[in-house]
Every structure is written in structure tokens, then in C-alpha cells.
Amino acid sequence: MRIGEASRVSGVSARAVRYYEDEGLIVPGRCGNGYRDYCRSTLDRVRVIRSLLESGLPLRLVREVLPHLAVGQPDAVCAEFVREVERYRDGLATRIAGLEEQRAALDAFLREARGSVT
Q1: Are 59 and 53 in contact (CB under 8 A)?
Q2: Which end of the chain is more exposed for a tag (fewer CB within 10 A), N or C?
Q3: Which helix (H) or strand (E) holds 30?
């Protein structure tokens, strides 16, 4: 199927599908006229990529794990990859804590500001 239908079927924008191709995450077939031809397995991969990205993983980690998922061995994901994901998650937790502190400071400022408004 061509990219418009692939986009519709996968639920991922055509722009994102092209981006995944540009990044080497998918390799669609080509028709004789040069149009991309997306098969079901490519669309399945597109859905997996989208899911991983939506879970917050950066593209570099998605790129690392895809070969393991492609061969149907998600348990074969190496320990180093798991440690990378844990480090990424821990970094998110640190950023969230910082944002919560900023929000608390803003809340305190607003309470004071509202109390002094006449």
C-alpha cells in the first residue's frame, strides 16, 4: 500500500512514516514507478516505533531496541539497554522533581500576590 493508506491504517501521520524511513527505522518496498510500498510487517513496525516514542523513549534508544523486537525476541534486549532506559527514566524523575519545585515556588508567589492585591 502507498503512504496515504499506510498512514491511515497505522494511525501514524505520513510525515512521521517518512521520518521513520529517513532515520532508517523502516525500509518500505518500492513499486516499479518508484512509489513506496508498505506491507503489513512494516506497518506493525511503525506502530511499535510510535508506541516506544510515545512512552518517552528517545529515538536513539528506540533504534537500539528495534533489532531485538524485529526477530521476535523482546527478552533478548540486552542488560545495557535496560540500564539505559532506567537512566533515562531516572533523569525524567529528576526533571519532574525540579518542575514540581518550580510549580511550588510559583504557587507560593501567587498566594502572596493574591493576598496583597487590593
Answers
A1: yes
A2: C
A3: strand 29-30
pLDDT of residue 78: 74
Contact 52, 62 (CB under 8 A): yes
Lowest mean pLDDT among 18-27, 39-48, 69-78, 91-100: 69-78
Q: Select the CATH number that applies to the domain covering 1-55 from these four: 3.40.640.10, 3.90.1170.20, 1.10.1660.10, 3.90.850.10.
A: 1.10.1660.10
- DSSP tag of 12: S
Check if the beta carbon of residue 62 is closer than 8 Å to that of residue 49.
Answer: yes
Mean pLDDT of the chain: 88
Determine contact, residues 3/18, Cβ cutoff 8 Å: yes
Report the C-alpha dihedral over residues 117, 99, 104, 108, rounded to 10 degrees. -30
Dist CA 43 CA 50 (whole Å): 10
Q: Is the model's pLDDT at 71 over the cut of 60? A: no
